[in-house]
Structures are given as C-alpha cells and as structure tokens.
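The data are passed on as follows:
___
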Amino acid sequence: MKKNIGSKLALYPMPLTVIGAMNGDKPTWTLAGHLGIIGHDRVMVSLAAPHFINGKIKETKKLSINLVDEIM
C-alpha cells in the first residue's frame, strides 16, 4: 500500500539502497540498509569501513545511489 505523505525530507518506508562505484572499468555494487536525507540537495550514505566499495568511492569521488522498490 502506497501513501502520499507530501513533500518531506524523509524516505518512508526505509528502503534498501544499492550503492555503486567504478572499479577500474567495471562497476561494483553493495547494499546499504541506511540512507539519510540531509537536505533537498544532499544525501548521506553511511557504510562500514570494511566495505570494498569505500576505497573506490574515495578514489573516484563518485557513487551511484539506487533506491530499491517492491517491483525490484
């Protein structure tokens, strides 16, 4: 059941998020269970230090954030 909660700085219900980055010429992905919206122009992704993707994000200074919905 979907419910329109209007224009809010919130993700509801809390989705899983697929975080992507490039590892050379190949993409790499990891699942993140927590994502926060800082403002209308920023998001915050918190990944545990051991994640391989952390180094790739720091190296390239780029990441992809993909919200998973029921259809996926």
